[in-house]
């Protein structure tokens, strides 16, 4: 069991009675987050685009915590599919309280090799996908308003960003641009929606052990090099991010609006300057 996982098991049911949707929830950070939200008492929709079996396994694990869950296949970059996904959730669960826009991918290449298809795919999923999820959740938040027995706010949106919303990343211009876009989208939506009682925030992971960045940690040499970028000297676990999302989405963080919570072991502290500069 990882350290992060242990912390999570002690999480009280701070989301009891809330309904959450997590995109890209059959792998990595999304999977840990969906399970974490369920453990904290929320009913959870497990979105996936491919891998129905993995999604069903996540659903079963969430249900073991005594809450409701189901899997829903949808491509977050497709407007019609996101609309249908949130509509079904309102039908099945009655409403939505927490949208975790987590789905994301990389299509890496040097700029001279990067095709428009690679550029566009990453922007479509990582930025447009989050916009669509935020927009559809917001419509329901506004329709329903605040239900004080459930939460002080009318709804919470958590955007899964990255340290690369502020750290440039050579060879990944599509990805870094998408996450830079997520930062400004999140802040703008937070400003626009706060007067209506909706909290929009982001979590920005550093290096987390998931399939998306396997090359960076799956050999001892790669992990050693990676640790030079992490002052806290450990690669993060998906549960580290799940814990952050769970607390951020809860009323414990009710006064946190338009903020990025960096969960990165200090990666954004310019580690190169610890010994130089
Ligand atoms: P992952 O590859 O394990 O998970 C990504 C998930 O998104 C998968 O379930 C995938 O199927 C899903 N997805 C991809 N395209 C989709 C689409 N069109 N519609 C719906 N779902 C789709 O990787 P992860 O590390 O868990 O990544 C989750 C999020 O965390 C991403 O937004 C990623 O950018 C971000 N992130 C990860 C790290 C890290 O170190 N792992 C660091 C910073 C940010």
TrEMBL record:
CDD domains, A to Z: GlcDH_SDR_c
InterPro entries given for it? NAD(P)-bd_dom_sf, Sc_DH/Rdtase_CS, SDR_fam
What superkingdom heads the lineage?
Bacteria
* Family according to the record: Belongs to the short-chain dehydrogenases/reductases (SDR) family.
What is the name attached to this protein's record? SDR family oxidoreductase
> Which species is this record about?
Streptomyces goshikiensis
Its lineage opens with: Bacteria, Bacillati, Actinomycetota, Actinomycetes, Kitasatosporales
């Amino acid at each position: 069991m990882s350290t992060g996982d242990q912390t999570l098991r002690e999480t009280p049911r701070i989301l009891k009675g809330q309904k959450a949707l997590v995109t890209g929830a059959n792998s990595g950070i999304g999977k840990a987050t969906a399970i974490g939200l369920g453990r904290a008492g929320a009913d959870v929709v497990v979105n996936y685009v491919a891998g129905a079996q993995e999604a069903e396994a996540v659903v079963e694990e969430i249900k073991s915590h005594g809450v409701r869950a189901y899997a829903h296949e949808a491509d977050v970059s497709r407007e019609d599919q996101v609309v249908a996904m949130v509509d079904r959730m309102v039908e099945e669960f009655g409403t939505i309280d927490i949208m975790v826009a987590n789905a994301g991918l990389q299509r890496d290449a040097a700029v001279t090799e990067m095709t428009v298809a690679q550029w566009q795919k990453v922007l479509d999923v990582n930025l447009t996908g989050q916009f669509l999820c935020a927009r559809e959740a917001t419509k329901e938040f506004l329709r329903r308003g605040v239900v004080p027995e459930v939460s002080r706010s009318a709804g919470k949106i958590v955007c899964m960003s990255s340290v690369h919303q502020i750290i440039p990343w050579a060879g990944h211009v599509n990805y870094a641009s998408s996450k830079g876009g997520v930062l400004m989208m999140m802040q703008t939506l937070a400003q626009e929606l706060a007067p209506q009682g909706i909290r929009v925030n982001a979590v920005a992971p550093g290096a987390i052990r998931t399939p998306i960045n396997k090359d960076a940690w799956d050999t001892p040499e790669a992990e050693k090099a990676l640790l030079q970028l992490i002052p806290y000297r450990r690669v993060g676990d998906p549960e580290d991010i799940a814990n952050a999302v769970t607390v951020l989405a809860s009323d414990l963080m009710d006064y946190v609006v338009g903020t990025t919570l960096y969960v990165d072991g200090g990666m954004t502290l310019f580690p190169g300057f610890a010994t130089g500069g």
